[in-house]
Design brief:
The protein is of the alpha/beta class. The protein has one domain (4-183): 2-Layer Sandwich (Nucleotidyltransferase, domain 5), CATH 3.30.420. 51% of the residues lie in helices and 16% in strands. Helix 4 (123-144) packs across helix 5. The radius of gyration is 15 Å and the shape is globular.
Amino acid sequence: MLFKVFAVDPSINKMGWAVLNSREEIINAGILNYTGRGSVNARIKMIIHEIHKLLVANEIKNSDYFVVEACAQIVNPRSFLILERVRSAIETVAIIHGVKVPGRVNPRSIHVRMLGLEKPEKRSKIKQITRQFVSSNYLDFFRVNNIDVDRKNQDIFDAILIGMYFCRVMIFARDDYEISKILSDI
């Protein structure tokens, strides 16, 4: 089955996004940067507008998927609530656009199944391993698009990894129910 996945590493400041096809080929990727650009409400409104534009520009259709990384852990309750508003808003945009939103991707599942991390690691170590893993798989994409393979573009690496994981979930899932069951697996 051919499809596209629009994957998002959500944030109120710097949000990574990537569009991959079902063969795990990157179609497009980037970062939306809203750092210091007004109130939370103003930034969410800008994010909603930009996500809509990206769905249209990348021709994301009703046979395609929109996946967002779930919350890894709650460190700061206020930040968690703001991020939940962002997640809910962008998922709603995708639903209104007619795209399938099967659920959120558990970061721990990605760490275990994609990166081979059996035990929890420090965040900085996970970020480093993610950069190495993604850049080794997609070095041509980064070169052609003049994207530095460094920490400042971490959000792109995270979004690509989310998309890669979802594409691999689709290999085993028989229907939308099974997809949502796998995504919610902790």
